[in-house]
Write the structure tokens for this entry.
Amino acid sequence: MSSAKDVTDANFKAEVLENSKPTIVDFWAEWCGPCRQLGPVLDAIAAEHADHVDVVKVNVDDNPAIASQYGITSIPAVYLFANGEVAKTSIGAKPKSALEKEFGEYLNPSA
Amino acid sequence: MSNQPGIFANAVNLNVGGAAQASAASEDARTTSGDDAVHDVVIVGSGPAGYTAAIYTARANLKPVVLAGSVTAGGELMNTTDVENYPGFIDGIMGPDLMNNMQQQAERFGADIRYEDVVSVELDGEIKTVTVEDGTVLRARAVIISTGSEYRKLGLEDEERLSGHGVSWCATCDGFFFKKQNIAVVGGGDSAIEEATFLTKFADKVTLIHRRDRFRASEIMQQRAFDDPKIEILWNTKVTGIQGADKVESLALEDTVTGETSELAVTGVFVAIGSDPRVGLVKDQLELTVDNTIAVDGRSSTTSLPGVFAAGDVVDATYRQAITAAGSGCIAAVDVEHYLAALDS
């Protein structure tokens, strides 16, 4: 799974909604096979695009409130928040190029 | 497996043939990422077919390269729980454990497993090329295509929109979100019943919706569904719509015999109506069957192009079991061995 920073129900507001940088949130759980496979892909995106986005993860098992608030019923779910709002979502484990395309305007804002 | 229709769709055409690689490499840095060797065999896919082919070709000292996929490694079984019908495991084995075992078994004999996605293949000619996502071009004398299958969709207007908001393809991933709720599973095969049974751990009630009047599933699985007080079965019923503003609220149903329509209030729907062979990479280069599987010669894995072999669900419209895929992977490995031996003699 991803080595991204863990965000919880308690600090989601401060870490994600109030983050001045766009933030990609990886909603995941231990028992979700595709989530484990997506982790390293998100790590690579985090490393390559650190100037423009932060990448964090939320364990839905331990933090049901946030997942429920955003109506998440499938994981892995990758949500991009900008200015406190959901800006983009992507459901399922996808290869790096697919995610880079979906989130492109935030990963490479000048491009 | 979670729904990943786009995996092989985002192909980039680098237009680099085997012979042209050296000159192209100086022009395009993307192709220089160093794999100059001509491999004996490259295996595309890493389900039971791909890994079994890897075990056999590695033991034949062919040093297989397995392109396992960045997020699909291990294939469909990675999203299952107990596999009870794979011979050799008295008490069954978890799908992901079985696949991890196969992977390690292949690596023990020297298989080179890479977690990369293939974006294009050139299967014609004596040296085939396989291009992965970062632009690396692998050259090989033989290629085994074992790309498996991908989940079939209902093809309904709101399916995509509500995907992730009540519409799901992965019970083991998403069952958790439906605790104490009423949900539906669509389908009538083993996987539909396995999902329905699994989901009763979380849901209050699971309605199993099947368009025929009997299941295709094995007897033992059917009996489990019949015996489960949380499972209700709707026979001769098809789903004609998924409704809900921003999450699933109900399904529109139609009786396939009487034509009568009805509505079923559910908060989730798991789609398990089968899968289609994943032939996107090769469909313009290899002959396919009427079932859209890769055509192979008789019981062999030989495709319409020499040096190209196919195994697993991508050649199988009928059986599609872990064990048949594994057997098929073995056949492909032995065919590759014979093919290369004949070339060398």
About this structure: Chain A has a mean pLDDT of 93. The domain at 3-105 of chain A is CATH 3.40.30.10 (Glutaredoxin).
